[in-house]
Amino acid sequence: MDRRGSVEGGHPKKTAHNMIEKRYRTNLNDKITQLRDAVPSLRMTQRQGGADDAEGFTDDDFSSLSQVPKLNKATILSKATDYIGQLESRNRNLETENNALRGRMEGLEMLLMGRTGAASVWN
Q1: Confidence of residue 40 (pLDDT cuts 50, 70, 90)
Q2: Whether 83 contacts 59, CB under 8 Å
């Protein structure tokens, strides 16, 4: 054995380490590819179309996300972060709208109960 811990004439530790690193890089690249495919503006660069998205969003819903010709890992992470921010904002707006509609529904229910004396129609 030499001073680096490998057997003379071969490098089994180095080979094992290289295999582990390759598996790690392959897994990481696969996850980045999945992330790229989950972000509409990045998906659009792959298919070059404006079709509706499977989740019910159209590509126009995310038009403020600029399209990029090169899909390197940093770009994918950056665009994914932008997309998550847009989804969070959309969720906050929908929650606000939902709460407003609930309040309106409760007001109409109170009005209906006051006029008819009936029990709640929603519960």
Answers
A1: very high
A2: no
Cβ pair 41, 67 in contact under 8 A:
yes
Q: Using the predicted structure, report yes or no on whether residue 107 has a pLDDT greater than 90.
A: yes
Q: Are 71 and 115 in contact (CB under 8 A)?
A: no
Q: For residue 50, what pLDDT is reported?
A: 43
Q: Is 79 exposed, middle or buried (0-12, 13-18, 19+ CB in 10 A)?
A: buried
Which among 74, 81, 70 has a CA at the least distance from the CA of 45? 70
pTM of the full predicted structure? 0.60
Q: Show the tokens assigned to 55.
A: 């989740």
What is the residue extent of each domain of the chain?
39-116
- Whole-number Å distance between alpha carbons of 8 and 1: 6
**Could you identify the residue written with the tokens 């929908």?**
94
Pair 83, 41: CB distance under 8 Å? yes
Q: Which two tokens stand for residue 111?
A: 């009005």
